[in-house]
Amino acid sequence: MHRLPPRIGLTGGIASGKSTVSRLFGALGVPVIDADEVAREVVAPGSMLLQQVFEKFGPQLRRPDGALDRTGLRRMIFADAARRHQLETLLHPAISVRTEKLAAQAGGPYQIHVIPLLVETHGGSRFERVLVVDCPRALQLARLQARDGCDAEQARAMLDAQASREARLAAADDVIVNDGVPADLVPKVAALDQKYRSLAAAGHPSTPGSISGP
Length: 214
Known about the structure:
Layout: E1 7-12, H1 18-27, E2 32-34, H2 35-42, H3 48-57, H4 70-78, H5 81-106, E3 111-114, E4 129-134, H6 137-148, H7 152-160, H8 165-171, E5 174-177, H9 185-202, E6 209-211
Parallel strand pairs: 1-3, 1-4, 2-3, 4-5, 5-6
Helix pairs in contact: 1-9, 2-5, 3-5, 6-7
C-alpha cells in the first residue's frame, strides 16, 4: 500500500511568523498547504460559498469587484466568538475537501500544513507532529500593529481571541522561536527539515524538540 507523506501541522499566533517559516520550508522543496490560502479559494468571487458569506454576515463585506472584504470580516469575527464559530462552520467542510485534494496531489517527503487555528480547533491529532512558531507576546503585538496598522487595543483584542501562548506551546512537538530577524529562521527551518525527512524515511515520529537558535 502506498504510504502518504507525513503531515506537519504548523501553527502559531497571529504575527508570529508562520508565513515566513512556511516559505522557508517551501524553498527547501517541501509542499506547503496553507489553510488561509485554501479559505480564499473556496470563497472566490462568484462562488456559491461567497454568496452564503454575504447572506450571513452582511452585504457590506462585498468589495466593488465582487470579492470578499477579508479585513472587514476578520475584524467582525475577532470581535464576536459566536460569529467566528458561524464562519468556521460554514467554511470548514469546503476547506477540508479542498485541503485533502491538494494534499493528495502534492506528494513530497513530508508536507507542511499551515493551520492558524490548529490549537483552537483541537486539530493536532490530524498530524504526525505539531510545529509552533513562537515569540513573546510584546513582540507579537508590535509586529501586528506594524503589519496591520491597528492600534494597541485592537491588537490585544486580536491576540486575546486566539489560544494563549501557553496553550500553543503545550500542544507543540517542535517549536521555532522567532524573536529575531528573518535570517535567523533559515538555520532553524533547515534543521527541522532534516529532522522531518529522517522521520519520514524511518516511518515514525520522534521525541518533541525546540529549535531556538542556529
